Amino acid sequence: MRKSVPWHILWHVSGFLFFLVLLAIGNFLIPFVNSSIYANVIRFLNANVLLFLVMMVIGIVNEVFWSLYFPLNILAPLASAILSIFIITFFHRVWIFVNSYVHSNVSLVIAPFYVIVFLIVLVAGYITILARHGKPRNVWEEEHGRWHEWGMRHMRRKTKVEWEDVGDEFRLALYNLGKNINEALAGPRKPKRK
What is the number of structural domains in the chain? Predict the structure, then answer.
């Protein structure tokens, strides 16, 4: 089933609105729940609502770019990489929040993660665009099937594989591995003279 851009926008917005409703209920229950941890978790979520809003907007932009054809989807990996920065920021804030209760001495140096993850997501995104020949994700999946469907198609073989065949292949692989190790340890052999 091909999901349209309006469907993705509606999905993201409705998910964010559902989160806001749950957060409002959580705020309403603070006076009735006698737990400082509960109150602090709700305050933590309240403090990060703007971050969640920004992540939702970037996620929508990301989905829109990924649903376009090349060259319009050329900004999709950049949007994904920017979204990854905000996700790392959120996880870092969660780490600081949890660490305030655990009181561990473990501190995270977060700056390298920003650069490394940004570059990995960016490069992986452009590789994905090249692998899909510039086609949107939905079109690519319709033409080539999803990965699990691909795997299932290729697992079904016309000839039945017997366990004895697997055993023979395994023994041969171990034999070749052992032979290569022996040759590497023995060094180069001198040719035999006749």
Answer: 1
* Distance in angstroms (rounded) separating the CA atoms of residues 178 and 34: 66
Parent domain of 9: 5-155
Within 10 angstroms of residue 77's Cβ, the number of other Cβ atoms is 21
- Residue 190 inside a domain? The answer is no
Q: Is residue 178 part of a domain?
A: no
Q: Are 73 and 134 in contact (CB under 8 A)?
A: yes
Q: Give me 79's structure tokens.
A: 């949007």
Judged against a pLDDT cut of 60, whether residue 131 lies above it is answered with: yes
Contact 124, 77 (CB under 8 A): yes
- Cα–Cα distance between 105 and 108 in angstroms, integer? 10
Angle 86-89-93 from CA coordinates, rounded to 5°: 140
pTM of the model: 0.63
